Amino acid sequence: MEKNNSRGLLFIVLATLFWAISGNFGSYLFQFKEVRPEHLTMTRMFITGLVLLAYEYKVDKENIFKVFKSKKDFVLIFWFATAGLICMQYGYFASIKYSNAATAVLLQNIAPFFVIIVMSFHYKKVPDRTTLLALFIAFFGTFLLVTHGNIKTLKIAPLALLFGLLAAFGFTNYNIVPVELNQRYSSTYLIGWGMLIAGIVFTIFTRPYKIPFIIDSVSISGILFVSVFGTLGSFVFFLNGSKILGPNKASILSLIEPVASTFIGIFFLGVIFTIMDFIAIGLIISSLLLISLPKKRKDTK
After folding, report:
1. pLDDT in tens, the chain (301 residues)
2. What string of H, E and C letters represents the secondary structure of the chain?
3. The CA-based dihedral angle spanning residues 263, 239, 169, 77, taken in that order and rounded to the nearest 10 degrees
4. What whole-number distance in Å separates Cα of residue 53 and Cα of residue 195?
5. Cα(159)–Cα(45) distance, rounded to whole angstroms?
6. Domain extents for the chain?
7. Within 13 Å and on the Cβ side, how many CA atoms surround 228?
8. How far apart are the first and last CA of the chain?
């Protein structure tokens, strides 16, 4: 058991580190190689989608097109791909382009609170006191991150904020939309088709292949790292780590990502953070930790 827990811990840490490194690698490519968020978004979607579907085909080739046989399921997975994955993936990298990886991660990570708000309205149930406290801390932390306490000024680029909120919107749909589909399909199947559909739709409308960038060994290896390790590898590691440790512990450990992104940005890309930024980062991480901790059950007699 202890050996399995250690392996699960390693998987989650590797997943979060790959996410953190890939975000900063994306920032480097945007600054120095004229790579655009469109390039990274398209590439990571196609690679992840095709690899996961190849795995699903090997496991159960008879049902590889099952999701298309139900009109309802197809509509759900199409919405999951477009309003979920495209918004989340493109919004995240576009936010990095106009700010930095740590800020983009933090803006995207307020999405769990959007999920809580949406589900509270859906079930007509007020969140518990711990969740309400976490909500307040998260949005106050976001307010400090964006304004440094002065409501009249923005301390990050407006486009960074806009795309960060787009990523949070996508992340919200990413969590809510597949709830029903998860009862009939595996995670790898849903992510595989979601990524491939998202990649096709995104490519048709943005045509990233027509946007030039500096093509050399660094840019190609960077794009591949973001696509293979930062997307596919992170997903596989996190999925397996979550199965071993459970979703609560996995979500808590995933909070390593914004911390790692911050320090990678400082030491390798020269990103400058102020005291107010660090306070905001601490508040947002604390709020996520609050909602990730398992709730104590009251004994009933």
Report:
1. 666 778 888 998 999 999 999 999 999 999 999 999 999 999 999 999 999 999 999 999 999 999 999 999 999 999 999 999 999 999 999 999 999 998 998 888 887 788 788 878 877 888 888 888 888 898 898 889 988 888 777 788 999 999 999 999 998 888 888 888 988 999 899 999 999 999 999 999 999 999 999 999 999 999 999 999 999 999 889 888 888 888 767 777 888 888 899 999 998 888 889 999 999 999 989 988 887 776 654 443 3
2. CHHHHHHHHHHHHHHHHHHHHHHHHHHHHHHHCCCCHHHHHHHHHHHHHHHHHHHHHHHHHHHCCHHHHCHHHHHHHHHHHHHHHHHHHHHHHHHHHHCCHHHHHHHHCCHHHHHHHHHHHHHCCCCCHHHHHHHHHHHHHHHHHHHCCCCCCCCCCHHHHHHHHHHHHHHHHHHHHHHCHHHCCCHHHHHHHHHHHHHHHHHHHHCHHHCCCCCCHHHHHHHHHHHHHHHHHHHHHHHHHHHHHCHHHHHHHCCHHHHHHHHHHHHHHCCCCCHHHHHHHHHHHHHHHHHHCCCCCCCCC
3. 150
4. 10
5. 23
6. 2-292
7. 6
8. 33
Per the CB < 8 A criterion, the answer to whether 259 and 105 are in contact is no
